[in-house]
Amino acid sequence: MVVLANPALDEIPLVRPQKHGAFFSAIPVVDLSRPFSAEALVKACEDVGFVKVINHNVPMDVVQRLEAETVKFFEMPQVFKETSGPADPFGYGNKRIGPNGDVGLVEYLLFGITSKPLSYTSMSFLEEPSACLFGPALSEYLVAVKKLASDVLELIAEGLKIEPRDLLNGLVTDEQSDGLFRLNHYPRCPLLERLDRSWTGFGEHTDPQIISVLRSNNTTGLQISLKNGSWVSVPPDQESFFIVVGDCLQVLTNGRFKSVRHRVLANGSKSRVSMIYFFGPPPAGKIAPLSQLMGEGEQSKYKEFTWADYKKAAYKSRLGDNRLGQFEK
Ligand code: GA4
């Protein structure tokens, strides 16, 4: 029997297992420059709630400049870093994550992104004084990654056949949308390395927002939980971005997409730097399953709430809590 190659198939396998070392990674990869990326993104969000995107159009020189400045920031003496803290919620934080007793082997800077439109020239949208320690790469990065988030959400809307097409990305590009930016540093730890132990860098949790866009240096540590409950390591890729489905997108899709539990394990051998832009809707934005995604007779799985309600509840919770639980019907 002769099996003919089907050239059309070359266009489709945008979600494909990636060979990494001796194993096939469970992390879907979507090439945003290829046809069918909308369908591939939807499939990845349904299956895993996490997807690596390539050909994302974020200039690598901007990413590298911001990474270099981030490394420099975290290399500053502790007393200097602490002038931009403690994070409550914005500013410099060390070991303590959130207000309810969570800790990890991590130091970080958290920025609130205000409603003003992002521009290359103005830093005023960053509600954090330490923003002035960074050069233009910070705002250039935020502009480019916001565009990426918007493109991804528009593709997801296309894949889900949501009308109007800008319904989802409109939630994060709205003047009132509530963004957060986090720079994390998981330092080298010779003791852990010596003991060959790993430690919690950032405990397991889901992100409360719509989506988060994560990028890290070439250090391992990030893990995601698959639907069957097993944890898998995400091979680092400093040239790509990872899209994380958040709780709000789970609700908007009535549970068709699942917000992915993820965590960072620190093994101390190499420092890890990550940058995550969290895209939340406007505070008054109503979060409820989109009627056009509901099948005939399908009931909403969630009580209706606003992003402000959800955020308030989130800040009362512990990192690993199931925050959506109290909003389920
Ligand atoms: C998890 C996702 C983001 O990092 C974050 C975190 C926030 C914080 O660090 O202040 C929270 C956590 C996150 C959810 C529950 C609360 C709030 C810590 C915490 C225990 C910035 C966010 O938006 O929610």
UniProtKB/TrEMBL annotation:
This is gibberellin 2beta-dioxygenase. One of its GO terms (biological process) is response to light stimulus. Keywords: Dioxygenase, Iron, Metal-binding, Oxidoreductase. Pfam families: 2OG-FeII_Oxy (PF03171), DIOX_N (PF14226). Belongs to the iron/ascorbate-dependent oxidoreductase family. GA2OX subfamily. GO terms for molecular function: gibberellin 2-beta-dioxygenase activity; metal ion binding. Its EC number is 1.14.11.13. It is an enzyme of class 1 (oxidoreductase). Its cofactor is L-ascorbate. PROSITE patterns: FE2OG_OXY (PS51471). Residues 176-281 form the Fe2OG dioxygenase domain. It catalyses: gibberellin A1 + 2-oxoglutarate + O2 = gibberellin A8 + succinate + CO2. The keyword Oxidoreductase applies.
